[in-house]
Amino acid sequence: MTEPLEKRLEKAMAELQAAQEAVARTERELRQASFAVLSSDRAVRATVGPQGELSGIEFLENKYRDMSPQELAASVLEAANAARLKMNRHVMKAMAPFTEPSSNVPELKGFELDWERIFGPEVLRDDEDTARDDRATPAWRDALGEDGED
Q1: How far apart are CA 149 and CA 134, in angstroms?
Q2: Cβ-proximal residues to 113 (8 Å cutoff; 6+ apart), any chain
Q3: What values do phi and psi take at 35, rounded to 5?
Q4: Is 33:50 a contact under the CB 8 Å cutoff?
């Protein structure tokens, strides 16, 4: 037997209110989030804030003193991009529950997000793919040694 309309509406309103509260909690949590990542040469630690903005750079163990400007720039970019990717994935994970349809109220569909369009294609790669990529020398690092600048 089907539920009376008033009961279904009451359930939908309760679920909507719970979802709004969960979104507010998630937003508060995300505003406080930050991630720090070391470059593969362990010379730089980059920290990003909740919107992926660069909020800190540390040059570790004075390794920068023995690096060319291009090598140091590459280390900074590598660490900053990895930290940004980590933050993007954290946002995706935090927002995932809101993309699911309601189990109690079938009329409440989850919302669709095009994560690739928002964050770029690397955010959808498996962690295993990313780990494999991290072990390989990035193409832009190879180019530094071949561009004739010392």
Answers
A1: 25
A2: 95, 99
A3: -135, 140
A4: yes
Instruction: Tell the residue number behind the tokens 């295993």, with chain if given.
Output: 128
As a whole number of Å, the end-to-end CA separation of the chain is 78
Parallel, antiparallel or unpaired: strands 35-38 and 54-59: unpaired
DSSP states of 118-132 as a string? HH-GGGGS-HHHHHH
Angle at 89 between CA 50 and CA 124, to 5 degrees: 140
Q: Give the alpha-carbon dihedral of 85, 92, 135, 74, to 10 degrees.
A: 0
- Name the residue with tokens 């900074």: 76
The model's pLDDT over 34-48, given as tens digits with 9 standing for 90+, comes to 999 999 999 999 999
Cα 40 versus chain centre, distance: 19
pTM for the model: 0.70
Which of 120, 132, 34 has its CA nearest to residue 83?
34
Tokens encoding 80: 């900053």
